[in-house]
C-alpha cells in the first residue's frame, strides 16, 4: 500500500465526484449534487487525504477569517481508519485556519475522546439547526392537512 498524503484543495484539486463517493461510503448527504459539492469546495478551506489518486479522507472548514471557524464534514473511509489519518487531517485543517480565535466542530458522541486528544473541548452549548428543506416539507404538510 502506498503512503497516504494529506493535501489542501490548493495543493491538489479535490474533484467533486471523489467527495461524493466518500460521502456515499460514509452514509452522508445523499441529497448533495456534484454542482453543490463543487460550489462548497470553492468557498471552503478543504483538505483531502489521498491513497495515490483515491480520496480516502476529507474535511472542510468555513470561517469569517478572524473570530470563528467551523470544521465540517470530516471523515475517513473505514478501510483507512485507526492509522492516525483522522488526526493528521484534523491537524492539517487546523493549521490552515491559522490564528482564528475559536475553531468549533460538531461530532458524534463516540468521537468526543478523539477530538479531545486533538485539543478540542466539549461545551454545554446546544446546537440548533434550521433547514430550508425541512421548512418546505413542513409547509407542504401543513397545506396537505388543510385539504
TrEMBL record:
Listed PROSITE patterns: GNAT
Domain N-acetyltransferase: 4-145
InterPro entries for this protein: Acyl_CoA_acyltransferase, GNAT_dom, NSI-like
One annotated GO molecular function: N-acetyltransferase activity
UniProt key word Translocase: no
Gene Ontology cellular component terms for the protein in this record: cytoplasm; ribosome
Listed Gene3D superfamilies: 3.40.630.30
Keyword terms, alphabetized: Acyltransferase, Ribonucleoprotein, Ribosomal protein, Transferase
PANTHER family, A to Z: ACYL-COA N-ACYLTRANSFERASE, GCN5-RELATED N-ACETYLTRANSFERASE 2, CHLOROPLASTIC
Protein name: Ribosomal protein S18 acetylase RimI-like enzyme
Species in which this protein is naturally found: Paenibacillus rhizosphaerae
Amino acid at each position: 500500500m502506498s503512503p497516504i498524503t494529506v493535501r489542501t484543495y490548493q495543493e491538489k484539486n479535490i474533484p467533486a465526484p471523489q467527495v461524493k463517493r466518500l460521502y456515499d461510503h460514509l452514509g452522508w448527504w445523499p441529497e448533495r449534487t456534484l454542482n453543490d459539492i463543487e460550489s462548497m469546495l470553492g468557498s471552503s478551506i478543504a483538505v483531502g487525504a489521498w491513497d495515490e489518486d483515491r480520496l480516502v479522507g476529507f474535511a472542510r472548514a468555513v470561517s469569517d477569517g478572524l473570530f470563528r471557524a467551523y470544521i465540517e464534514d470530516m471523515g475517513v473511509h473505514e478501510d483507512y481508519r485507526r492509522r492516525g489519518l483522522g488526526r493528521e487531517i484534523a491537524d492539517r485543517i487546523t493549521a490552515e485556519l491559522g490564528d482564528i480565535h475559536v475553531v468549533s466542530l460538531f461530532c458524534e458522541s463516540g468521537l468526543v475522546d478523539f477530538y479531545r486528544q486533538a485539543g478540542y473541548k466539549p461545551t454545554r452549548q446546544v446546537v440548533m439547526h434550521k433547514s430550508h428543506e425541512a421548512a418546505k416539507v413542513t409547509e407542504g404538510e401543513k397545506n396537505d392537512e388543510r385539504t
